[in-house]
Design a protein that fits this description.
Helices cover about 20% and strands about 30% of the residues. The chain is α+β, with helices and mostly antiparallel strands. The radius of gyration is 21 Å and the shape is globular. It starts with a helix and ends in a 17-residue tail after the last helix.
Length: about 240
C-alpha cells in the first residue's frame, strides 16, 4: 500500500504519464532531475571542471577542492571510487552487455520496457542475472530498435559465458557491446577525513543496492538515518 501511495504521489511531478524519470532519455535524466531540484535549494554546479587537488586542513580533514586555479571550499566530499583509488579496495568484477535488437524480447507481450531477473538459485550461481530492455519509445535507440542490457557480478574466468542464460531469452541480436569492470568499496567510513566514497555499481539494474548505498552515505555523513516519511499534504496541515 505504501508503494502504491508513493506511485500516486509521484504522478505529475514530471512531464508525461509516468512518475519515472528513468529510463526515458537514459540515465542522464537522473542527474538532470537532481540538478533541477538542487538548484531550487541553492546548489551550485561547476560543469566540466577537473579535480586538480583535494585540500586538507592541519588536522587532516578535507577543506576544499582545487580546479583550474579555483578553490571550492567544503566541509566534506562525496565521490565515487575513481576519484580516490588509494581509499578503496577491489570487491569483485561486473560484466554488462548492451544488445541492440530489431524486435521486442520474445514471449514478453511486445512490451516497450521490462526487466527480467534470472534468480541465482535457478542458475546455480551466487548472483542473479539481470535483463533491462527498452524500446525507441524511451528515446535511447532509433525508431524500430530495442536495447537490452544484460548484467551480473562475475563469478568465473569466462564472464561472457555467464550471460548465456539471459542471452537465450533475447532472440537475434544485431550488435553487442561488452564491458567488464572492477568493482570497488571504500576502505573506511570517511568520518576521519571527510572523504565519503560510494561503492561501485554492481551487476543489478533496478537500483536497489544503489539506493541502499545512498542511505548508507547519508548516515555516515550526518550520523543519522534519512527520514523518508512523506511530507503531509496541504489539507493535512489545515492549509
Amino acid at each position: 500500500m505504501e508503494k502504491v501511495l508513493l506511485y500516486r504521489d509521484s504522478l505529475g511531478q514530471y512531464s508525461g504519464q509516468s512518475p519515472y524519470i528513468y529510463p526515458r532519455y537514459g540515465l542522464g535524466e537522473l542527474p538532470q532531475a537532481f540538478a533541477r531540484l538542487s538548484a531550487i535549494y541553492g546548489g551550485t554546479y561547476m560543469l566540466d571542471k577537473p579535480i586538480d587537488e583535494v585540500l586538507y586542513g592541519g588536522d587532516g580533514h578535507v577543506v576544499g577542492v582545487r580546479s583550474q586555479g579555483e578553490i571550492a571550499k567544503c566541509k566534506f566530499v562525496v565521490a565515487d571510487p575513481s576519484y580516490f583509488p588509494d581509499k578503496v579496495k577491489k570487491s569483485g568484477r561486473v560484466i554488462r552487455m548492451i544488445c541492440i535488437l530489431n524486435h521486442p524480447i520474445p514471449n514478453t507481450g511486445s512490451e516497450n520496457s521490462l526487466q527480467i531477473i534470472l534468480p541465482q538459485r535457478e542458475l546455480k550461481r551466487k548472483n542473479d542475472i539481470y535483463v533491462m530492455a527498452v524500446s525507441s519509445e524511451f528515446h535511447v535507440v532509433p525508431k524500430g530498435k530495442f536495447m537490452a542490457i544484460v548484467s551480473t557480478n562475475v563469478e568465473t574466468a569466462e564472464p561472457e559465458k555467464e550471460l548465456i542464460p539471459a542471452l537465450n531469452l533475447l532472440g537475434p541480436v544485431e550488435e553487442r557491446f561488452v564491458s567488464i569492470i572492477d568493482e570497488f568499496t571504500p576502505s573506511d567510513d570517511g568520518k576521519k577525513d571527510g572523504i565519503f566514497i560510494s561503492t561501485s555499481y554492481d551487476g543489478s539494474s533496478h537500483f536497489e543496492s544503489t539506493s541502499v548505498d545512498v542511505l548508507n552515505l547519508y548516515k555516515r555523513i550526518t550520523g543519522k538515518d534519512m527520514d523518508l516519511t512523506p511530507l503531509p499534504a496541504p489539507e493535512e496541515k489545515g492549509e
